[in-house]
Amino acid sequence: MAAGISPPAIILGLLFILSLFSTSVSSAEAEENLLAFRSSLEDPTNALSGWSPAAGHVCNWTGVTCDPSSGRVASLVLRSLNLSGEISPSLCRLAGLSELNLAGNFFNQSIPLHLAQCTSLQALNLSNNLLWGTLPDQISQLRSLTSLDLSGNKLEGALPIGLGALDRLRVLNLGGNMFTGALHISIFGNLSDLVHIDISQNPSFSSELPPQLGNLKKLRKILMQSAGLRGGIPQSFVGLGELEILDLSRNNLSGKIPVGFGLRLAKLVYLDLSQNRLSGSFPGEICSGMVLAELNLHTNSFSGELPESMGSCSNLERLQLQNGGFSGEFPSGLWALSKMTVIRAENNRFSGEIPDYIRTASRLELVQIDNNSFSGRIPPGFGMISSLYRFSASMNGFYGELPENFCDSPAMSIISFSHNSLTGSIPSPRRCRKLVSLSLAGNHFTGEIPNSLTQLPVLTYLDLSDNNLSGEIPQGLQNLKLALLNVSFNQLSGEVPLPLISGLPASFLQGNPGLCGPGLANPCGAEEAQKRRNLSLTYALISIAFAGGVILVAAALYVKNQSLRRKARRAHSASWKSVLYYPLRITEDDLLMRFNESNCVGRGAFGEVYAIRLPGGEVVAAKKLIYPTNLSMRSLKTEIKTLAKARHKNLTKLLGFCYSEGIVVLIYESLPKGSLGDAISRSGFSMEWPTRLRIAMGAAQALSYLHEHYVPTLLHRNVKSRNVLLDVDYEPKLTDFGLDRVLGESSYGSSMASELGSRCYLAPECGYSKKATEKMDVYSFGVLLLELVTGRPAEQPEPRDSLDVVRWVRRRINTDNRFQILDQKISGTALPSISGALDLALRCTAVSPEKRPTMLEVLRSLQSLESAADPPPVLSADTSYSGNP
Ligand SMILES: *[C@@H]1O[C@H](CO)[C@@H](O)[C@H](O)[C@H]1NC(C)=O
Ligand SMILES: *[C@@H]1O[C@H](CO)[C@@H](O)[C@H](O)[C@H]1NC(C)=O
Ligand SMILES: *[C@@H]1O[C@H](CO)[C@@H](O)[C@H](O)[C@H]1NC(C)=O
Ligand SMILES: *[C@@H]1O[C@H](CO)[C@@H](O)[C@H](O)[C@H]1NC(C)=O
Ligand SMILES: *[C@@H]1O[C@H](CO)[C@@H](O)[C@H](O)[C@H]1NC(C)=O
Ligand SMILES: *[C@@H]1O[C@H](CO)[C@@H](O)[C@H](O)[C@H]1NC(C)=O
Ligand SMILES: *[C@@H]1O[C@H](CO)[C@@H](O)[C@H](O)[C@H]1NC(C)=O
Ligand SMILES: *[C@@H]1O[C@H](CO)[C@@H](O)[C@H](O)[C@H]1NC(C)=O
Ligand SMILES: *[C@@H]1O[C@H](CO)[C@@H](O)[C@H](O)[C@H]1NC(C)=O
Q: Does domain 577-866 have CATH number 3.10.310.50?
């Protein structure tokens, strides 16, 4: 039996058993070392809770990978697990560990010297931690390293010479630290395998570029932006034939770009030399390899021309040359590159014309060539690029007429041709419904301001100043939400629409002797003035008649009231009927008897509101509506019932209603603290931000309930701070919702139109859109939020033409420090949250409805602001457990 087994087989068998034994020994060791490592960690999320002998073999532990042939731990990858604590030396006892990645944790220590003992490491990644101190020279002992990533830490001091000994390195990333000193020549001499080097965002470096870098022929990526570099770009860089990405931007490099640079770097895809002090002219060919996609040379001190051959860089997508110091003919081929999306060349001295074949650059999105010496006519070809959203070419020498299609790109949002020599009339914009800004100032345009400008729904800046335009200012401009209108120094005439004189837009009208209107030098011609005098006489007569009328009406009311009382006393109010949804101890008589001046608490577009104390002591609010007699009682009841069934903690309850011919009285619950509008209008309004936020959230919840959850969907249609009532603990309740359903659209519309005090809550599209939408409520809510954020009432009662809150904010948002918009009384406390609410309010009040969020989205945003506004929990005496349970 045993004799049947040959000696070699026995030896093989023994070897097998031995090897099993040694694996298990190494496994036990590995387990011990890993557990030692873990014991020095803080692991707040229990990411490594599975690390225990009970969980099986170490090779199965989170983040651990073993070499399949040796069974030894080969890599430990514990990325972004919120780990902190100490990186313990036990790691380096894991013989065979070739990769260690602890990136994205919170290790707050200097780089441990003992890591130098991990001599088998090939990849070390400690990026994005809180490592501090210097990079120790002992790093040189990690001779096997091919990849070293220490980016995004707080390392400082000079780079150690020992780094130069890591001659197998392919990837070196030291970006985003605070290293100082110079890039030492001897470091880079030996790193001949280097493929990627990143030392960007180390502004404390102060170094020249070592010419030796040019010997590292395998380099494909050099990222050295913001790295304190000065001096010139070494000629040796021309030899980096594999280079794909070179970013040397935001340094202090000077001198010329090396000769042959473009020619020899045939694989270059991305070249960024912007924001330096490079000078001289551009050296010949730039994209001999035809792969260059992004060329960024802006903000330098170049001189001279760009090579005409640049026009054949057929893969170029983005070109930025602004503030570059260039002059001479702009390479005309650049206008025809089919992949080009961005051309920025402003503030140079380029000359040349825009060729009509610019239409072949069909992906162009942005062209900025302001402040150059371009000339010629604007070709129709540019109007055919449908992706173009900004074209600005102010301060050049363009002449001739603007092509009819100058604004045909459906994406177009900013056009500027100001300060050129364009002539002819301004063509009617046809398709550019997204145009926000149109600037044609300082040309020689003649003819009238095209009326079709008033059809551009989001036009906000319109500068036509300093031309030779004539005719009147189109009436329709007053319906746009313009922030700026400048028509000064033209030949315009006629009466200026009143809203353009008072309030927003900021109108600039001077230098048009023919324009007239109140407050202008010319208050309209002598004839006009006579007419006005007559008119004001009429006004005076009307007001006297009105005053007389009021007295009459009052008298009539008094008589009626008296007779009502008498009738009531005799219980003869038979024509009144009521429907109550809550058990109120109230009779029609009770109500009618209390409709008098002293109980009247408000007057709105739809009628008076009375606060009525019932015999039982409770107070209700009764809203008296004039009810169009052409509507049927039946539909009235149905609609009111629909409103009454809308139940939400942030909607006032409709308790019931009573009606007689032509009049409906809606009975609502009454709230003790009055309306938010009243509160804001009071001087010294100083509600805390968390309270304001709670009010906003309540209102948003109510609206989102009406829009999304209630069937049938209801619109509020009259959101304003005066319709936000406050409960004892400042819980808000919206009132006055859905009255359009009760009154019918036409009657509702005319009542709303008569309401002057809250115009600014109306979305701009209310003017022309037939159908009411949820987005109109969102707009009104945005205005309410602006009130909360600024602490300003939506409209100031006096003076009449002062700015409403929307205009007030819009005027400031682009010019002032935005913090001055926020209510100074609270902005010290929860700035990010308040500022976030301002952003949200701006989105809600976007001019175009489709840009506004839905109420549900609004609500989510507010909730996230709320968690941001929460003060950290404080353990106060009430909540601690030292006292009685
Ligand atoms: C590895 O872990 C998985 C579950 O996490 C378990 O199903 C498997 O049995 C384990 N394997 C070993 C060898 O421990
Ligand atoms: C990890 O830390 C980040 C930043 O402190 C924190 O936002 C995140 O919630 C933490 N993750 C876990 C799971 O605790
Ligand atoms: C890092 O640790 C030091 C003390 O060792 C501490 O002062 C510092 O605040 C910590 N840094 C961070 C970001 O936690
Ligand atoms: C280091 O780890 C981070 C996070 O996983 C990763 O983004 C980065 O690419 C790694 N660095 C290297 C050089 O692989
Ligand atoms: C570079 O390599 C040479 C020869 O291999 C060696 O003598 C020199 O010490 C190395 N430089 C550094 C900084 O390690
Ligand atoms: C750039 O270099 C010039 C001269 O070498 C120096 O005057 C200037 O201060 C430097 N600028 C920066 C930002 O380092
Ligand atoms: C126009 O560009 C020149 C440089 O070519 C610059 O010096 C000047 O300040 C620019 N003008 C304006 C108004 O930006
Ligand atoms: C309006 O146009 C005139 C003339 O071009 C100019 O002087 C003035 O500064 C412009 N005003 C604004 C606010 O743009
Ligand atoms: C404006 O037009 C008038 C005649 O309509 C002409 O006399 C004047 O020269 C023009 N001004 C400019 C600046 O084109």
A: no
